[in-house]
Design goal:
The structure is a homodimer. The first copy, chain A, is 26% helix and 33% strand. Chain A is of the alpha+beta class. Chain A has 2 domains: 6-70, Orthogonal Bundle (Arc Repressor Mutant, subunit A), CATH 1.10.10.10; 76-246, Chorismate lyase-like (Chorismate lyase). In chain A, the strands form 3 sheets. A 6-stranded antiparallel sheet of chain A has the order 4-5-6-9-8-7. In chain A, strands 1-2 form a two-stranded antiparallel ribbon. Chain A has a two-stranded parallel sheet with strand order 3-10.
Chain lengths: 253, 253
């Protein structure tokens, strides 16, 4: 079962060395010549095959003429199953902050958000989730979320106008309201349906999030329902794989 | 803000045509010559750039000398937040089946599992989650899960021996026990902690799941706790992005 081709053995050893932290994020790997010597390989193409495999696994990034580097990887834990509660809890650090920002700050990192508010026709997938006719205008809050000044995720929230109009939802900028925006708008949510699709980014996402080649993303779509079971908000979050660990706590009873 | 380079416009149009189903999964796209004519492009490299971008987004697969095909995409909805309950519910189709199989069958698809049971030293990440010393032997149930005879995911369950020994957990093959294996073993779980990491597959995973190049995976790690808050099981599932939509229902209260 186990193959013993030399390059596969070296691939496994280098992968383990990266995962165990022997080579640190951002560190340059030894040159091809050094790797040949260190791992007793006689074939240069075999070493290059190892490096190409590590790159395609997303563990290293190869920079033309400069070498191969261990990908920077200091992800945040993202708690979509919990974060909406936090703004209403006064006992934790960051209560009153935006919920995502509080989650990030609790991990000792520095959150920042760039927010644009507009009204626009709902994309079809959003209209369907909000029980709206195709092309209906909705309020949109588009967020670029940065951690330690690095773009970490985009999160665009869509609201039917019957929910958003005349409420703080339409206010531009980063507004923090204890209890959350939806409660302030008179539509507290009682249930979420989260859908996660894993895919490669499109070129716009790649640019907006400064993604190195070969970085997949989670497209996380949350539909929120009010106590009358009506959908009142959809958030689409694009979360790059190298910057997030997504955590759900599930009650088994 | 919007770029109007011709190839980007064509990329957007072709992407929309694929997402809307105008080009069906498995269908061959028009040839480069046909695309040049259809989209009034004069540059062959520009068309090739469009196709390369679609391939890197995972929307098309290019087969040497044969052309570009829309990637097959008939994913299942996977409900990690719900599936463990199903085997104990007698009112739904498939109760008594393995929980995952019941979930798949309820979607009109045909589930099948290849299962191997063994004892082996726990990988470090598993030992840590199970509160075991490094290298402690654990029971492992390794599953390759197929849908309509296509490999869809691998799911490897790890159990401390104090949980597994002398129970049906150690039985080989696909065992379906109403209420589930863990309850039968005397360790019903009351809480799960799920961690999802999005990454590119390693070559072994790529081979085991027959993944086309450029297909990212979700690595889904579930740790289950019993009523004494002790970890009693870890499942690591590798779910390719092109075969799954991961669904969580979250109570907002």
């Amino acid at each position: 079962m186990a193959t013993t081709e030399r390059w596969r053995v070296v691939l496994r050893e280098l992968r383990d060395a990266i995962r165990s932290g022997e080579y640190q994020p951002g560190e340059r790997l030894p040159t091809v010549d050094d790797l040949m010597e260190r791992y007793s390989m006689t074939s240069r193409p075999a070493v290059q095959k190892v490096l190409a495999a590590l790159a395609s696994e997303g563990l290293v990034v190869t920079v033309h003429r400069r070498g191969s580097y261990v990908r920077e990887y200091s992800p945040i834990d993202w708690h979509p199953g919990a974060f909406e509660h936090r703004t209403s809890r006064r006992d934790i650090e960051g209560a009153g902050q935006d919920a995502w920002a509080a989650d990030v700050a609790a991990q000792g990192r520095v959150p920042r958000q760039e927010i644009v508010v507009e009204t626009a026709p709902a994309p079809d997938s959003i209209a369907a989730r909000l029980d709206l006719a195709r092309g209906t205008e909705v309020a949109v809050r588009r967020r670029l979320r940065l951690v330690d000044d690095t773009p970490f995720q985009t999160a665009d929230s869509y609201y039917p106008l019957w929910v958003a109009e005349g409420t703080p939802i339409m206010s531009p900028g980063d507004i923090a309201i204890p209890g959350g925006l939806m409660a302030a708008a008179g539509h507290p949510q009682v249930r979420f349906r989260d859908e996660i699709v894993v895919r490669m980014p499109d070129p716009d996402e790649q640019a907006r999030l400064s993604l190195p080649p070969g970085t997949p993303v989670a497209e996380h779509t949350r539909t929120g329902f009010n106590s009358s079971k009506r959908p009142v908000r959809v958030i689409v979050t694009i979360a790059p794989g190298d910057r997030h660990r997504i955590i759900y706590e599930v009650s088994g009873q």
